[in-house]
Amino acid sequence: MRRRGVLGVPSAGSAWPYLLIAPTVLGMLYLLVYPLVRTVLISLQDFQLRQLILGDARFVGLRNYGTLLTDDRFWQVVRRTFLFMAVNVTLIMVLATLVALLIERLGRLGRIAVLSSLVLTWAMPVIAATTVFQWLFHSEFGIVNWALGQLGLTSFDRYPWFAHGPAAFTILVLLIVWQSVPFAAITLYSALVTVPAELYESARIDGASARRIFRAVTFPMIRPIFMLVFSLEVIWTFKAFVQIWVMTNGGPGDATTILPVYAVQTALSSQRYDLGSAASIVTVLMLAAVLVFYFRQMLRQEDEV
To answer: How many CA atoms lie within 13 A of 44 on its CB side?
Structure first.
């Protein structure tokens, strides 16, 4: 029975577990909640370089949000962000599902080899992977231009990939997908191994095809994990920043600028920290809205089933 002190307050012994986790909780609050609160406050102030140095920021309410939401460039960036997220998440989930199904059908040695390769890819630091992709697509010394030239595509000789918007956008999509598929594939494979073999045997006896087995047996069993991975990929691709900033800085022009990059550009280049903070808060709200809409649709489908 739990010991209580005077007036029902937990005694020192029962409070000990809370004291043990208190440093972790306080650290998380400082690292996660404080920056968010600080960003909200800055977004409601006139906070530029002068205010950063002197600290005399003036409260302006929602003026920064009004300026942001009436900016045509901002809405172009929003559309590009959702396009970037949709393309990446679709490719990641399709490829990860196929890789997970492949691993399940491999022998022991093949499974170990593929899983080891995925783990090594997943473990590569983001900056290192981004630098490798920059070298691969270098206009003069990149292996991609060399390989295309060997195939007879002479038009790609010294082709400046990062000087053309669609090409730079495509390279970033390849990089994000390459970095994200290992985690998604390993997670989905871990869900596949939990599906009882008896269900597969029953489906085969009934004459179901491989596609029918996946739709009627495999996917319903792994749906919770699939939805979890899908949600994580939406979050990670929506807030992708490091790869874009290192590789293109959002260029050429605005071809690879998405909301997180736009926020940093606004804060650093224009020294409008208030507008940059407002853009960050709007990004968080849009991401939350996407996830809420997605979860509502998912729960509605489950209720119908």
So the answer is: 8
**pLDDT tier for residue 4 given thresholds of 50, 70 and 90:** low
Question: Mean of the pLDDT values across residues 203-229?
Answer: 86
Share of the chain above pLDDT 70, in %: 94
Q: What's the rounded Cα separation, in Å, for the pair 264 and 281?
A: 12
Q: Is 288 helix (H, G, I), strand (E, B) or coil?
A: helix
Identify the three-state secondary structure at position 10.
Answer: strand
Number of neighbours of residue 93 by Cβ within 10 angstroms: 19
**Amino acid identity for residue 45 in this structure:** Q
Distance CA 167, CA 142 (A): 14
Give the orientation angle of helix 34-43 with respect to helix 273-304, to 10 degrees: 120
What are the beta bridge partners of residue 272? 48
Q: 3-class DSSP state for residue 83?
A: helix
250-280 pLDDT, tens digit each:
888 889 999 999 999 988 887 889 899 999 9
Residue 303 confidence (pLDDT): 64
Judged on CB neighbours under 10 Å (0-12, 13-18, 19+), 136 is middle
Looking at the chain, the number of H-run helices and the number of E-run strands are 15, 2
The token pair at 209 is 């095809």
